[in-house]
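Session log. Operator J.P. requested a structure for one protein chain; no other inputs attached. Running the standard single-chain path with C-alpha cell output.
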Amino acid sequence: MRIIRTKNYEEMSHAAAQLIAAQITLKPNCVLGLATGSSPVGAYQQLIQWYEQGKLDFSAVRSVNLDEYAGLTPDHDQSYAYFMRHNLFDHVNIDLANTNVPSGISGDDECTRYDQLIANFGGIDLQLLGLGVNGHIGFNEPDDHFSLGTHKVTLTESTREANKRFFASLDEVPTHAYTMGTRDILQARRVVMVASGENKAEAVKQAFFGPITPSMPASILQFHPDFVLVADEAALSLI
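Structure written below.
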C-alpha cells in the first residue's frame, strides 16, 4: 500500500488526477473504473481542465462505473449515469458508447451482464474509489463476507443518510443499488482511493491499519499489490 498525503481536498484531487492522467497517457485505450459522490469530483474537474488545455485525449478510453441506484433511470438527475455525464463525460472527448454504468432498471440479470462486460474488456486498468464512513467501497456495505461479482445490495441507513443531501428528503433516497463486488475491485490492476475530511479518519484507520474483515469492506484492499490511498491531512489525522 502506498499513501500520498496531501494538505487538503484540492491537493488530494490534483494528485489523484495525476495518477489517472498518467494511466490514460501510458495506455490511451485503458479501462477506467470510475466512482461517484463528492470525493472524486475535484479530480474530474482537474482532468477536464487538462483536456481543455490539450494535455489529455479520452477518445479511446473505456470506462465502467462502480454502481447505480436501483430503480433510477439514466436520465434521472440523481442517477450515477447522469452524475458522470454532468461531472466528466459531457466535458471531454470520450465516446459515450465506451462508457458503462450498471443499469438500475434492468433487474438482477444486469449483474451477470456487467461482470461479463468487465471480463470482455480484459479487466480494469485503474479503479478509482471513494471511502464510505462505514468503510464501504462502491456500495459493498459491511457484512459477514466479502462479495464477489456485481450484485444488488440493500443500502444501510448510514449510507442513505450520507447521500440524502443529494435528494429532497431521506424518503427519496433509494433503498437498494447495484454495485461491482469486492472481487471485481480487487482484480483491477491498480486501485486509487481518495479520502478527504475528518469524517473519513476513523474509516481510514480501521480499513488500512486494522484487521482485514468484511465488516470493514475497504480493508480487503490491504491485499492489493498496487493500491494507492490519496488522502488529505484530516482524513489521515488518526494514523
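Operator note: The first helix runs from residue 9 to 26.
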